[in-house]
Design brief:
The complex is a heterodimer of chains A (about 300) and B (about 350).
Chain A (H helix, E strand, L loop, with lengths): L7 H27 L19 H7 L2 H34 L4 H13 L2 H11 L6 H8 L12 H30 L3 H8 L4 H29 L3 H6 L11 H11 L3 H32 L5
Helix pairs in contact in A: 3-7, 3-9, 4-7, 5-7, 7-9, 8-9, 9-12, 11-12
Chain B lengths: L3 E10 L2 E11 L4 E5 L6 H9 L6 E6 L2 E2 L10 E4 L11 H11 L4 H15 L14 H13 L5 E5 L7 H18 L2 E6 L2 H7 L2 E6 L2 E6 L1 H6 L4 H6 L6 E8 L2 E4 L4 E2 L13 E6 L4 E3 L10 E13 L3 E8 L2 E8 L9 E7 L4 E4 L5 E2 L2
Parallel strand pairs in B: 3-8, 3-9, 6-7, 7-8
Antiparallel strand pairs in B: 1-2, 1-4, 4-5, 9-10, 11-12, 11-14, 12-13, 14-20, 15-19, 16-17, 16-19, 17-18, 20-21
Helix pairs in contact in B: 2-3, 2-4, 3-4
Bound molecules: adenosine-5'-triphosphate (ATP) and magnesium ion.
Chain lengths: ~300, ~350
């Protein structure tokens, strides 16, 4: 037998390589390629027309895109910070609970168990200006006006944030709680003896210890929120008049409603940069916080 | 002036009572060691003094002030923890200065106090490292440094040396003793190691099961233990105890050895079951003892095992069916099984009631 055989390591890696190629690499390359074409879903032949960086140039000068981009960053910033504060508060309180803590922890996870689409529908109902729960409550308390929760741009943004925060604060709470459980008790006692008030102990001892856990939660959630789509799509569809348009609703509109897949893919690549920046930023912070605590890496 | 007084201090964890009404007076500047077997409530007692544990009953006062309801920060105490409890995210310098920073002292004062502590403990070269980059002994010194920068009224130590290797432990023991001579503060020190207790203490408080068994200077506990527990806990090797009974005003050990121990003043009653106690130092082969003054009882015993320690050798033998240890100074090689003529120094022996274990003074 003189037939050449593949080297052993390659044979062993081949299944993994094939799976990764099929699932990740080929779609990735395909979408990257198509972002350089005027590809329209309705006219497949457009896939073969090379337009260079035309799509990218178009995006970069497109006010709608930048509005969505800016809105996404704003959304991300507000949502992450509020979730952090609420999650931290919840975790600190849960840590004090001595009785029934397991049950509470399970209850805390409930919002994460629902499909975001259902959460979207639920809040769409809650914030509905005619029959919604919020307005009914407000009216029964004597406020006369029916607030246009999902119609007014600012209020709609608020409502979406509210839904997002309701659904995902527990990610922060759970991770921070894990941090509190892992926290050694001794330094806290040393701090008490060293003269710290409870607030000072928290500020100088507990918080630095929790920072790595907070950054992990931040990384996870920033990726999550940066691709926020379902809740927005259900609650407002990016409207009214694009005032709640985020990157992914814009992309899906461009790709599937306008059928301009090439352009949508280009948007996708630009917005991925956003996610990468956030991830890199939080990972830097994470390593710094871990180094601070004397942990490896 | 900082005396520490405990009166009838009780600690309960739910149904479990960890400390049963302890009374203790500690003088200003005194070095008191709480010692006892694991789980006897030493740490609990110390933590109640520190304010890290609620006091279930009784009163703790520091410097004449009842501190039961004061948080630790208002007690002006420092504590060194068993596993150091350094702040992992702070450098050695920050660890040392933390308490002063919290107390909002001026920067120059903090720097000075930190440098002084660093110098006393030889930490100068480690000031910018994080605790993770320190060895156990170095961490231990930082923990001590953190305690001394504040010039507290009372130092509390909870087994500060138990994570160190034997050599370093001996070294740090000396450091702690020097430190006490330098700062002259009151020190309350917890350990389960009787050698640490003996070497460091002005006064030892020996505890068992949440009770104080005996309080006294190291030599008082060594020479006049109140019961068999103290006798076997203090001193190394532990005191030998052999069962016996009182017959005709003399002590007869199980197995028939009759010791002419004078049992005056009617403290021992005829037929009373006793435990006869003596230390290894008081059972020595002829010609190898330190002094042979006083009443001596001679007996021939076969050596079963030897432990040479250099200046002395421990000899294991059997007396009345019990393994006992004797000692030999100016040691010579001894074969296992060799019969030697031992001298038992009766004046230094102890007699305990067999039932209660209490010492009976002769
Ligand atoms: N938080 C707690 N809850 C319930 N029981 C406790 C608690 N802390 C200590 N105990 C019990 O109190 C008793 C005394 O404990 P303590 O820690 O004071 O012992 P110790 O003398 O310091 O022992 P060691 O030498 O092992 O440190 C033990 O029986 C222990 O089980
Ligand atoms: Mg202890």
């Amino acid at each position: 037998m003189t037939r050449r055989r593949l080297p052993e390591w390659l044979v062993l890696l081949l299944p993994a390589i094939i799976v990764i190629a099929a699932v990740v690499l080929i779609p990735l390359l395909f979408s990257l390629y198509s972002s350089f074409t005027p590809y329209k879903l309705t006219r497949p032949s457009t896939l073969w027309k090379w337009v260079g960086t035309y799509n990218y140039e178009k995006i970069l000068s497109d006010a709608k895109f930048w509005a969505a981009f800016g809105r996404t960053v704003l959304f991300l910033t507000i949502v992450l910070n509020l979730e952090l504060l609420l999650g931290l508060g919840i975790a600190l309180m849960m840590n004090k609970v001595t009785w029934g803590q397991r049950t509470l922890r399970t209850i805390l996870m409930f919002p994460m168990m629902f499909s975001p689409i259902l959460v979207g529908f639920q809040f769409k109902f809650i914030f509905n200006d005619n029959i919604g729960l919020v307005n009914n409550v407000l009216q029964s308390m004597g406020f006369n006006a029916a607030l246009p929760w999902l119609v007014d741009g600012k209020l709609a943004m608020f409502s979406i944030m509210f839904a997002e925060i309701w659904m995902s604060t527990s990610v922060f709470a759970i991770l921070i709680l894990a941090g509190l459980f892992a926290m050694p008790r001794d330094p806290l006692e040393a701090a008490k003896v060293d003269g710290c008030t409870p607030w000072q102990s928290f500020r100088h001892i507990t918080l630095p210890f929790l920072m790595p856990f907070i950054y992990i939660a931040m990384t996870i959630r920033s990726l999550d929120v940066a691709r926020a789509y379902d809740i927005v799509q259900i609650m407002t569809g990016g409207g009214p008049a694009r005032r709640t348009e985020l990157l992914w609703t814009l992309m899906s509109r461009t790709g599937y409603v306008d059928a301009r897949m090439g352009l949508a893919n280009a948007m996708g690549y630009v917005s991925i940069i956003l996610s990468i920046l956030f991830t890199v930023y939080f990972f830097r912070k994470l390593s710094a916080a871990r180094a601070e605590l004397g942990m490896a890496g | 002036m900082t005396e520490v007084t405990l009166s009838n201090v009780v600690k309960k964890y739910g149904a479990l009572q960890a400390v049963h009404g302890i009374d203790l007076d500690i003088q200003d500047g005194e070095f008191v060691v709480l010692v006892g077997p694991s789980g006897c409530g030493k740490s609990t007692t110390l933590r109640m003094i520190a304010g890290l544990e609620d006091i279930s009953g009784g009163e703790v006062s520091i410097g004449g002030r009842v501190v039961n309801d004061l948080p630790p920060r208002e007690r002006n105490i420092s504590m060194v923890f068993q596993n150091y409890a350094l702040y992992p995210h702070m450098t050695v310098r920050e660890n040392l200065g933390f308490s002063l920073k919290i107390a909002k002292r001026p920067g120059a004062e903090i720097t000075e106090a930190v440098n002084e502590a660093a110098q006393i403990l030889g930490l100068d070269e480690l000031m910018d490292r994080k605790p993770a980059a320190l060895s156990g002994g170095q961490r231990q010194r930082v923990a001590m440094g953190r305690a001394i920068v504040r010039h507290p009224d009372v130092f509390l130590f909870d087994e500060p040396l138990s994570n160190l290797d034997a050599k370093l432990r001996t070294q740090m023991r000396v450091e702690i003793k020097k430190l006490h001579q330098k700062v002259e503060s009151t020190i309350i020190y917890v350990t389960h190691d009787q050698i640490e207790a003996m070497t460091l203490a002005d006064r030892i408080v020996l505890m068992r099961d949440g009770h104080i068994v005996q309080v006294g200077t190291p030599l008082e506990l060594f020479n006049a233990p109140v019961d068999t527990f103290v006798a076997t806990f203090i001193g190394s090797p532990p005191m030998n105890l052999v069962d016996g009974v009182v017959e005709d005003g003399q002590i007869v050990l199980d197995g028939g050895v009759t010791l002419p121990v004078p049992t005056t003043a009617g403290r021992l009653s005829e037929g009373q079951a006793i435990k006869f106690g003596f230390r290894a130092d008081n059972l020595m082969p002829a010609g190898h003892a330190v002094d042979e003054d006083g009443a001596v009882y001679e007996l021939d015993l076969a050596v079963t095992l030897t432990e040479p320690l250099g200046t002395e050798t421990l000899l294991f033998t059997n007396m009345a069916g019990v393994e006992v240890q004797g000692k030999m100074f100016n040691p010579r090689p001894v074969r296992p099984g060799e019969k030697m003529n031992f001298r038992l120094m009766l004046d230094k022996c102890h007699v305990f009631d067999a039932q209660s274990g209490h010492a009976i003074r002769r």
